[in-house]
Design brief:
267 residues, alpha/beta, Rossmann fold, 2 domains, 6-stranded mixed beta sheet, 4-stranded antiparallel beta sheet, 9 helices
């Protein structure tokens, strides 16, 4: 079953300061399957985040349509939650209060809300940090709070915009392993990840969608035939992993070179 469907999506942004309009997405069609982990990767400026924001309901397409269970996506909703790179935590709220924010906005009764917050804190292994403020915890912990806050309303789809991009390499690897653990513990909700990291996309995903240089189009979708659960060592011990890495890297290099051409650089 398809959870999200994009039909002939295009997104055009108006020009600024005398420059021409910018075509971020051009005729993008795809299907996001129920329970899958889909990663989207492509050159900077190829429209990855724009596509994710259309799926979330943050911004409308210029032409075409995005659907959630065949219903048009016209606004954001609790059935599709976003995890951002920059955490987006409220600095004046504790860990527990940040996780509870969306539940409180939905007027969930306090006892039920507190129980759900405890459940989410257990899920992301933040026990003992409930009353800490964002400034008192590490970057990895902040991202755990962001994940817990997104999962607290029990969404059907989790959208992630480079959530590990600001983390150091070791913490990033650990968080990749953690997100797979959490994905498994939540009965494999549908996850859509934006990333620039090829290894991250392969390690996490069932499919990797490669986008072209701007205007963003789907260049290819690569199915990742690796066993689950995935041992972290698969990154270095599994030949198929390195084959996927080499193949996707070749596709992306062509698009990065295309993005650097004068016609694209000036767009």
């Amino acid at each position: 079953m398809n959870v999200i469907t994009a039909r002939n999506l295009s997104k055009v942004f108006p020009g600024m300061k005398g420059k021409g309009e910018v075509i971020a997405l051009d005729n993008v069609s795809l299907e996001v399957r129920e329970g899958e982990f889909l990663s989207i990767i492509g050159p900077s400026g190829c429209g990855k985040t724009t596509l994710l924001h259309i799926m979330a309901g943050f911004t409308p397409a210029t032409t075409g349509q995005a659907l959630h269970h065949q219903e048009p996506i016209s606004k954001a909703g609790p059935e599709r939650m976003m995890i951002f790179q920059e955490y987006g935590l409220f600095p004046w709220m504790t860990v527990s209060e940040n996780i509870a924010f969306g539940l409180k906005a939905r007027r969930m009764p306090k006892a039920e809300r507190d129980a759900r917050v405890r459940e989410c804190i257990d899920m992301v292994h933040l026990n003992g940090f409930e009353e800490r403020y964002p400034m008192q915890i590490s970057g990895g912990m902040k991202q755990r709070v962001g994940i817990a806050r997104a999962l607290a309303p029990s969404p059907e789809v989790v959208l992630m915009d480079e959530p590990f991009g600001a983390l150091d390499s070791l913490t990033r690897d650990v968080m990749q392993e953690e997100i797979l653990r959490i994905w498994g513990e939540t009965d494999r909700k549908t996850f859509v990840l934006i990333t620039h990291n090829i290894d991250e996309a392969i390690f996490l995903s069932d499919r990797v969608l490669i986008m072209s240089a701007r205007p963003g189009r789907i260049k290819e979708i690569v199915g990742i035939d690796l066993p689950r659960p995935r041992d972290p060592e698969i990154r270095t011990t599994e030949k198929r992993f390195s084959d996927y890495r080499d193949y996707i890297s070749r596709l992306l290099r062509k698009e990065v070179h295309a993005a650097a051409e004068p016609s694209n650089a000036a767009a």
